[in-house]
Design brief:
With 305 residues, the chain is mainly alpha-helical. It contains eleven helices and four strands; from the N terminus they run ααααααααααββββα. The strands form two sheets. Strands 1-4 form a two-stranded antiparallel ribbon.
Amino acid sequence: MTIALAMLAAVLLDLLLGEPRRAHPLVAFGRWAAWCERCTYGASRWRGVLAWSLAVLPLVSITSGLAWFAWQVSPWMYGLYSAVVLYLAIGLRSLGEHALPVASALEAGDLDGARIAVGRMVSRDTLALDDERVAAAATESVLENGNDAVFGALFWFVLLGAPGVVLYRLSNTLDAMWGYRTERYERFGWAAARIDDLLNLVPARLTAATYALMGHASTAWRCWRLQAPQWDSPNAGPVMSAGAGALRVRLGGPAPYHGQWEERPVLGEGVAPDAHAIRRSMRLVRMGVALWVFVVILAGWAWHA
């Protein structure tokens, strides 16, 4: 029950306060990870394993030690500590703060403003995007980051407490930094990419199932089954195909990266994405979070009943 109440407190803190504007722990971790990369870099998978271990394991150990100490003081201290750690790890409000300005700009007919806003969410060449592709990019980002920044963190928090959520979010951050198939990171970033894939194996599918339950279920299940295997990421495929199906919009398709258009499979089915699709995707994530919190609190109450 302590974990359940800590989860509720963390979600409420995120909704009330949002992410810290100054000295966010993940920003500080990014600097630490960059230092680890400079000290260990080499075109070798083992160098990447060493860098990942140096960057992540000491911080997870510290988190575990503090959690143990808090539990020795009192369950309430442990719950407070856990809630603060989870609050710092999730980004539900931040997701809306990035996505909704894109929708507002599109609704106002301000394509340039929408391109600038969506450029804060995605890595594709936003100047080449029209209204529909801007809306698609924002919607895809909301669905994918719903797993990476919200549901995945909640899953590992329930499973392993504060150390679990720290392990997950730091691994996710390293994947975003090193998990590229470029000449520099093809081998060095292999460990970061594979560990992130492993940690997301279950949460991604629970996220996809949540999207299906909160949206148009039959379409979501069908798109998940047929379209997810075509996507290059084993975890993003289920999340984005189920999310697109739940919203009944068409996502995926060609997208511009680094001056070239890359072919991608189509996701979902139905209408073309627009500003309303972005808002609906945020509603889907928020409803899913409410469901998860309710289920965890109910399970905690039943356990202690």
